[in-house]
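Please fill in the sequence for the structure shown.

STRUCTURE ENCODING:
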């Protein structure tokens, strides 16, 4: 039983139909939004896996060759060797300078010392 504005209260079959319709429309819109927001998502995911693989066995924490101010810069920028961020990691950073030997720590334009490809700091800048 309906009026011109839609189902009347108490009509369970029409209520269920509207609920399904609303759900399906919302699901379709959510899926489209997810796909629209995935530009480069597969590339980022692949790069993230590579960073984890390369960085897993690296210890890039030796700062004994750095000056106190350089160590301070690392600390101030909150550098860490490993990050849980899925979209921000050194291998995907504009400032990261990978070592030609993939099994060695890289370098950074803004944070001195050995840098893990799986690391992160506040100076992280997306590669464009």
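FILLED IN BY: designer on duty
SEQUENCE:
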């Amino acid at each position: 039983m309906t009026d011109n504005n839609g189902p009347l209260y108490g009509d369970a079959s029409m209520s269920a139909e509207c609920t399904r319709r609303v759900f399906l429309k919302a699901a379709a819109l959510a899926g489209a939004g997810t796909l629209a927001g995935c530009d480069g998502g597969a590339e980022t995911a692949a790069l993230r896996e590579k960073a984890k693989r390369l960085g897993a066995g690296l210890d890039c924490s030796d700062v004994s060759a750095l000056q106190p101010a350089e160590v301070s810069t690392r600390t101030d920028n909150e550098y860490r060797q490993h990050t849980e961020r899925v979209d921000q990691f050194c291998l995907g950073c504009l400032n990261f300078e990978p070592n030609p030997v993939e099994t060695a720590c890289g370098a950074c334009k803004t944070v001195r010392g050995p840098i893990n490809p799986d690391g992160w700091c506040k100076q992280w800048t997306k590669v464009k």
